């Protein structure tokens, strides 16, 4: 009988992502808790094939509202816009849509496919849209997986208004990780999957914060 691989030796993409983020956090040193005003629209980490508006992203490529970001099979990107921080995994396509009141800020994220972890500053309301789910964000940490047929949404901490495109939203509050799975037939509760506190901590560190569960 074959012995299952230990997590440290596992080669599956999810465990590889978690080990990679842990290495980022440990290696970042002074990056972990940045000054609160270090909120430029910048790429913080870049791996593999990543395109912004159809052109290969470089470490100094700016990220702005209106951009479409796509990661390839080996692509990952962590970036900051304003007080919000994002980590996109491989095979993700995301459009950053401008705020209607200030086109220098992001008003909504349209996630066509793939997975992301995000941390949002308090104050302005932002919206996430997938083919099967909408969420109104208020100072929240989230994990999201999306495809044309199904979305998985974890409210890691904070609160959101969650619903389906064209339908009424409902308030959703989590103490620490609560999942929802949304298909064309509706939204159901779901367990926490495919992400960890380490990733939430890393993403918040990019904007000089700690997640709610560490405060």
From TrEMBL:
It comes from Parachitinimonas caeni. PANTHER family: FECR PROTEIN DOMAIN-CONTAINING PROTEIN (PTHR38731:SF1), LIPL45-RELATED LIPOPROTEIN-RELATED (PTHR38731). This is FecR protein domain-containing protein. InterPro entries: TAT_signal.
